[in-house]
Amino acid sequence: MKKILKPGIHWLLIFIPISIFLEKTHASAPLIFFSAALSIVPIARLIGGSTEQLAKYTGDAVGGLLNATFGNFPELIIAIVALKAGLHGMVLASLAGAILANLLLAMGVSFLVGGTKFHNQDYNVTSIRVYSSMMLIAVISLTIPSGFHLLTAEKPALENENTLNLYLAVVLLIGYVLYLFFMIKTHADFFKSESGGHGDEHEEKWSITRALITLVVASVLAAFMSELLVGAAEETGQVLGMSSVFIGVIFLAIVGGAAESISAISMAAKNKMDLSISIALGSSIQIALFVAPALVIMSLFVGPSQMNLTFPRPLLVGLFMAVILAAMVAGDGRSNWYKGVQLILIYLIMGMMLYFIPTI
Amino acid sequence: MKKILKPGIHWLLIFIPISIFLEKTHASAPLIFFSAALSIVPIARLIGGSTEQLAKYTGDAVGGLLNATFGNFPELIIAIVALKAGLHGMVLASLAGAILANLLLAMGVSFLVGGTKFHNQDYNVTSIRVYSSMMLIAVISLTIPSGFHLLTAEKPALENENTLNLYLAVVLLIGYVLYLFFMIKTHADFFKSESGGHGDEHEEKWSITRALITLVVASVLAAFMSELLVGAAEETGQVLGMSSVFIGVIFLAIVGGAAESISAISMAAKNKMDLSISIALGSSIQIALFVAPALVIMSLFVGPSQMNLTFPRPLLVGLFMAVILAAMVAGDGRSNWYKGVQLILIYLIMGMMLYFIPTI
Amino acid sequence: MKKILKPGIHWLLIFIPISIFLEKTHASAPLIFFSAALSIVPIARLIGGSTEQLAKYTGDAVGGLLNATFGNFPELIIAIVALKAGLHGMVLASLAGAILANLLLAMGVSFLVGGTKFHNQDYNVTSIRVYSSMMLIAVISLTIPSGFHLLTAEKPALENENTLNLYLAVVLLIGYVLYLFFMIKTHADFFKSESGGHGDEHEEKWSITRALITLVVASVLAAFMSELLVGAAEETGQVLGMSSVFIGVIFLAIVGGAAESISAISMAAKNKMDLSISIALGSSIQIALFVAPALVIMSLFVGPSQMNLTFPRPLLVGLFMAVILAAMVAGDGRSNWYKGVQLILIYLIMGMMLYFIPTI
Predict the structure, then answer these.
(1) pTM for this one?
(2) Taking the C-alpha atoms of A133, A139, A145 and A151 in order, what is their torsion angle to the nearest 10 degrees?
(3) Do C134 and A332 touch (CB under 8 A)?
(4) What is the pLDDT of residues C166-194, one digit of tens each?
(5) Least CB-CB distance to B133: which of C342, C348, C352?
(6) First and final CA of chain C: distance in angstroms?
(7) Which of A139, A287, B163, C286 could be a cystine partner for A291, CB 3.0 to 4.6 Å?
């Protein structure tokens, strides 16, 4: 377990009992919130690690599928918990925030950290192109129901809107399945990195039982800590004077993706830029094309009412611009420290704006 | 004639008498509409074929000009008929729809069909770059009068708006003439395909009289069938519960461009990607830079009032996104089946949205 | 001095006394305005020339810094004068206009002039990529406060808005300083042109005293003539039936950047495309990332109230589209006459729209 949590985050598991203690003693919401947030980071890494171990027993195709599907499991769990509580606005904010955090923050810090060690870092452009157009498609798709909502706001078009969102979710999931088929089966050569295999070479190999048990236990823990996290989110916002959108976009999003972001950054520091970028971009795509539509369909069964993909306009414009920017910055197959600065600056500026908007 | 209609569409000519019969017997509007629509496909192919035959007698430059100008003759005829009837909204919808159908549907199906036969298909990027920036310029230009309309909606700025649209139409036509000059005269080398000449090698050669007569007869037929088509369009929408914008964007647009789209797809199946893409993109450009401004100017003489290029906002945003997406997807000179899927998915999603919007 | 003003603009200095005479005799506002405008062109060139001379005494890094910082000194002076007069709308319009004039007009004319002499002109793509993403970042940043303003228009969020704008200005200036560091220190190799050094080879070298005195005198003259220019601007608009936004976007912007634009065009005519493009794009970036935020901060001390970066929506959309277009058109490292036409056409069309809008 230590090896999987190697980048020095296993000690964060201590925040599991701390969070429970804080919750039981009715500590203030922000304390519970941030404690639960910290505890989810190593749990997420455990989920990722045990999935990778399982993948070793399944062969490449199923393994790729497992990794892809469980790659954003923590985000999914947090979102489902918030969905159950009917916090649709916060769910959407956390989805948008996760995409922004991956495209701008994780990739930006990766470029910056890598760029301070190496003058230029080269990577394979073919996969970047696929990722970029996937992201653009995802964002265009998410624009549709939001635009529809804006256009029909005053008219009683609720039924149409729900139908449109369901159909859209199904189309996106079909697109996602074909994307996996493309990536794992027909054009796996596009996604080969030049810099060597995934993960570390001398990693221990777990028994299949151990991998499965770890996955199940970690998932249960993640669900439990997400309950604490989401339960404290709104009150945390009130205490700190932040809107629930801001809490969702910044904090929930970063917590859910922290484990993956740390991987992306440590890969960049080792000059494995292909891996670094594919983690950050691949994760964004899964959120937009798998997690988001899956949540729409789940909302029929889990939550109080159907959740539609109607993002507030600032988030939508932000997503669109982040995708265009990331495509432009990453698109020439060579990174340096200043590209990292550029991405981080835009993340900062967008965060500032969301912080200062009274309500969205 | 059979050779020109070779991809097996000449039997569709049977829909000419069928449509006339349906019209005379006052059949239901959708029957007339779809019958007339089917009859226009082979007529459009005849127009294209006779233009190509004429071009053989004129030398490259004039031939290029002829092909370019008559390339979207069917769209133009349908639009003029709708213009005469004062259906400005439907004309604009059919123009936007024709661009979307070319960029997303025709190119998407081409990539998909080609991609199922060949693992990757390569093509010349230089011409794609020219086409992409032309399309972006066209869309930016079309944004201007629509934005102007939105901004001045409440003020009585009608006269200014008409003037702006006329000036804009003139500027676009100047841009189009210079584009032809660039493409045919100064930089013809950019547009040479690597995969061989236009059309099939062993095609018969017509006499100039035959070519001219075919062109004239086919044009008259096209105009006549367009009258039936447009006359039945609005009622068809009402019967099927579709808005007239949806009818224009989807049905009118696909009918007008079907012949060209079929060519583009069959070129892709023969691995002639340069030709395939240049048909789809070239056609979009002609619609935006030639057909659209020409219709504005014609509307002074043909219709009840001047038609301005004020597209409804969803169409405008859709056009902008389709152009950016097509540029990104097609821009690296190599296609595969999944790129086709991406483009088709976005076309589907946009279509879904337009279907569900009550009125635009 | 003649050598510096070589492209035949030194005789324009005659407009300094002419403008003063017109002002003293209370001539009509447009006369004063255009006379002062013409006089600023050679003054701006003197500022640029003396800065280059100074740079010869300082070593590469400081020299680069000097050139970068004083590159848009004329624009800055005009803007400060307008800021003092509280003409915030005109300042913002002149900033947006300066970016548009550089990206579309100066680059367009450069491509056109160069393209009439040479079939194709090649240039280094690496620096273009950096410039393009910098411009996109700049425009995204400028979108934030404007979007914020639109979203909170009805609510009394003035204090938040001022704070957001100040923070944004600071973040942009930090980004600008790091950009200079990147460009001058760590990655100077990216910006090496293949076509030889800056400026003309056999240029005379000034004494440091002469350079300093010229710089100071020219700056004082620029400030003085800007007073006349700005003082006559609003009345000129009224007399000619133009909005103050139009005056700012077109006239103030072109005047401030004329000297640099002339350099860019004359470099293109000499087939030094790297220099030509880096002047046009570099200048846009400095305006967005240095002049604009600097003016926000200065407005705390100079003007009647804080100036926020809330651009009217047509300018914002125009900026965004101009950046995407310029990136697409310039991005393949090869220019021709028609690319120039494309850029100029869009500038014309945008200008037309701004002319016809009653008020923005």
Answers:
(1) 0.88
(2) -110
(3) no
(4) 999 999 999 999 988 888 888 877 776 55
(5) C342
(6) 42
(7) A287
